[in-house]
Structures are given as structure tokens and as C-alpha cells.
Amino acid sequence: MTLNNLTAQKRCVSKTVTLPRLNRLSPSLESTALKIMEESGELAQAIGKLRGLNGEQQRLVEEEAMLKVAKELVDVAQTAVTMMFVLEEQYGIDLDVILKEHIEKLRTKGYCD
Asked: Which parts of the sequence belong to the NTP pyrophosphohydrolase MazG-like domain (predicted)?
């Protein structure tokens, strides 16, 4: 594999996450937005514990902290996906169109190819 091929492959890398619709909840736009903020706070707290920014003397070891950060990040993602379902089901928003527009915006800004 040449360097150019390797570079081209790196530019096309993406992460696909598939998360379920939570069928035992009746989320509203407001409750889901508040939940995103709560989960984002827990993510920030996990990062703060790693960096010793929470005022506590004891820090988590990096491996333990990164595991906590990853778990909190997935919680944020799940809640964001839940809000996507709310927007689609309760407000008729076509998220496929929104996602395509988002990717085009990223390309236009030069963040990806």
C-alpha cells in the first residue's frame, strides 16, 4: 500500500454507531434535552476526575478514567439518538436530510473530504 492510498483511507474513516429506540420511555423534547445536559455533565465530571479538576485530591488512573469517559460518552450518544427519534416521530423531521446537510457542511468547512 502506498502512502497516498494510506492517506486517502485515513481521510475516509468514519465511525458508525447504531443505538436502539428506547421503547419503555415516553420522552418529550424537553425531557430529552434535559437528559442530554445531565449526561454531558457526567461526561465532563469523568474528564475532570482524570485531570484532577474536580477539587478532589484523588485522581483516577488514566485507563479507569478513559473507560468512564467512554461509558459516559455512549450515554450522551444514546440520549441524542433518543432526541432524534422524538424529532422524527413527534415533529416529522426527516433526519436523513439533516444528516446529509450536516456532512456537506463539514465538507464545505474543510473538516472532512
From this structure: 29-108
Mean pLDDT of the region 5-14: 60
Extents of the domains making up the chain: 28-108
Distance between CA 23 and CA 81 in Å, rounded? 13
* Residue given cell 450536516 in the structure block: 102
Residue 95, pLDDT > 90, answer: yes
Whole-model pTM: value is 0.79
At the top level of CATH, the class of 28-108 is mainly alpha
User: Going by C-beta distance under 8 Å and a sequence separation of 6 or more, which residues neighbour residue 21?
Assistant: 81, 82, 85
**Are 51 and 113 a contacting pair, CB within 8 Å?**
no
